[in-house]
Amino acid sequence: MKDKHTERWNTYEPFHVVLGDKKVVDIIITNHARTRWADRVESEKTGYSDIAEYMWQCLKEDRIVSYYRNEQDVYTIDDDLVFVAEFSVSETDTDLLGNPLHKMIVVTFLGRMSETMELRDLKTYYSWLRHSRRMTLIKNNRKRR
Length: 145
Fold this sequence. Notes:
The protein is of the alpha+beta class and 145 residues long. 32% of the residues lie in helices and 31% in strands. It has 3 helices and 6 strands, in the order ββααββββα. It has a 6-stranded mixed sheet. The chain is elongated.
């Protein structure tokens, strides 16, 4: 969803918001992200346009920051809501100098740190998740034999 409400001063350059080293020109919400949004974030406004509008607002207000300093795939909003995003170069949009602009693809919403304490340290959370899944698989494997 591109920003519909912003008036542009320059009609030759598409509207974009800088996030780290990327210039975001469009936000794409995946089906999985929409499902996770409804499960973990909000149950009222669950449409693609509602989520994208909220993300645009957060981008414009500079409320989105990278979760880790070195990695560029996990982000937080207001140091609370954790989500995973990927970036792809937009084929149709460039800035005035010809530099590429990016589409932000929201892959999933992990939840709020204020509600899920495990999200405060994602590396520990993911290792715990892998371990618990592996143990579940081992238990199920034993039952089948």
